[in-house]
Amino acid sequence: MLNTQTSLDFTGVEKASLRPVYLSDYPKSSQAFLNHLRLTARECRSAAHTDLFTACAVLSVSAPVSRNAHAQVLMKCLAQALGKTPLMYRPDVEEVSFDEAWLIRTGEAAASKDWDSFEFLIRSRVPKISRRNVGALLVSISDQFALT
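^ thats the sequence. predicted structure below, dont judge the formating
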């Protein structure tokens, strides 16, 4: 993902320049959230993919579910929900992919109870049929971190 910054060119006209987004651009709590998802994604690479609806149905039956279980289901099913495999870097890699930035922003919106932004972010990438499940997983995971 790229950040836009404005600068003046030699004619005095503002122009946008793009720079990569880095992990250090985010608060420590968001960095921990993303690194947890990155680590979980690495662990899930060799695991069988799980159907989003089946996995969420199993999780909803069990009340005391750990954040690892929700993160595993999210990372196993995210490709199905997005319609493509998300780009996830190794934990502590400084660069942040577009998919990772989207996960952070969506998690931050859920944690701050900014439901308008949360809904916009979910709707921007997830088909209607998967929104409820992906949203519930992201809310559950973000509740475990003090995201700002």
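Confidence is low (pLDDT under 50) at residues 5-9.
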